[in-house]
Amino acid sequence: MMTGEAMGGAPDLDQSLRGQAGLLGDLLAPGCGRLLESQDLWRRADGLMESLLTLIQRGGDPAPVATMLEQLPSSHNRCDIVMIFLLRATLLKDGAAPTQALQTVLADREEGGGAFSLAQADYILRAVLFGLWINRLHVRDKAAHDRVERALWAAILDGYQPALAGRLPVAPAQRQRDLVVVLTGQFMRGMHQPSLDTMDFVSKLVLRLGRRVLLVNTADGPVTPQVPFLGGFVSGADEGLAGANQLVIDKLPVPFLHLPAGFTDPAMAAATVDHLLAQRPDLVLSFGTMSPVADLCRGLLEVVAIPYGSYLPLATPTYLALPRPLTPGDGPALEAGGLTPGRVIPINYTYAPPAAGAARDRAALGVPVDAILTVIVGLRLTQEVTPDFVAALDRAVAQEPRLFFLFVGPLETYATLIASYPALATHSRAHGYETDVIGLLMLADLYLNPPRGGGGTSAAYALHCGVPAYGLGWGDVATVIGPDFHLADYGDFAACATRLADDAAWRQDRQAKAKARFAEISSRQTMLRQILDGVKRIRAAG
Fold first, then answer.
1. How far apart are CA 456 and CA 7, in angstroms?
2. What's the whole-model pTM score?
3. CB-count exposure of residue 502 (10 Å: 0-12, 13-18, 19+)
4. Bridge partners of 91?
């Protein structure tokens, strides 16, 4: 019989977990609502949760956590109920809990917001969305969860309506037909990809399509946590842009409006809508999701919602630009946004060609010369590289021993994840953050996408380099790479790698298809023209 020491100290791990669960239970027993009233209690409870999460990720038995949560005194206080659901969602990976948490917040908003303010409801929704995006949270019924998200967003928007009373729409004849507002919820200098995309869109609108542009950053994301048990979620903000009224983009002076970073309250949203109404633009192009200002313009100005990916944004626009065909499952989301299929404009979401990378050497990277080098790229790999995905990679190595996986980006859990897979440990390496991803892609044979919603830019760059980019048939990467590179499941990847290595003609065909696919998704001018022409067509149809 194995001793506790031989088992890697599991009894000590479980003992620590039970002790931490007991401390958290004692802290929560008087009621979770008081956490919102005391930063000290909040920090202690949040710290205990993160400690428990770490212990569970190291292999601890979560049963004491489940028991502790079940033994807490029953409460009809919605704050208490939501906090327990958030703990279940994070610690127990309860797939129903995120939906139940949002349902409870929705009920609170519909009845006047007694437990959560408008700002707190907004924060919880954004943080849950982000938690799902990075695989920190999981949902059991995606369709039902999506309906609750959209209902909650509608209820949050209802909280803004009193501040907008009395505004009149700008008549079509009064609009400045050459003026376009480009609106985003987050804009920063540096290597923030959505911001780089936004600047490129602005440049193309002015230089190639003859429009004048007002760039607006509503900076809606939270800059401080509002509710515990959501991972301390905050959004990045560029404080140096606050107060700026002009940016220079491709040597062009562009009028700029930057709202104070953080929750956009009803008064600020109404003032911004008034500013836009005074400009009388032809269109508002709203990039991203969850933009109160953009949604409050509906009925006053014409708004095109443009997601940074393949998802249907939480939005109530006039038109929706979507980089994929509609599916029957999109019906409820369209209805929630007040849209019909006839107001959806098909586009190719596009990616600007990247700058050239520097030549790299396999030996210097610790990669065997004859390996089938497969890169896995991302800034959130710690959350996105799941145990199931790692197990799939290990199975792929068993089928094709020439495979070598290079994880490019932060992966703090690498050692823990591969501890049970000695073969994969010798056929992979955690490279860490890399400033010259293109240089690594130029060296790669294949690109593989982990199960995640994002990743579109790195996949597009792989295609640009002629690297066949594979992934499952959902999420942003699936839209980028196209059906030629979709996997039914990760079990199909090893066979693709073997054929790529052994069949020169097929390898050349795959590389050519990769470059051809990038050519289809690399013209920003074409994408913007698709949007403008789509609006013109719908307007003409009445």
1. 41
2. 0.85
3. exposed
4. none
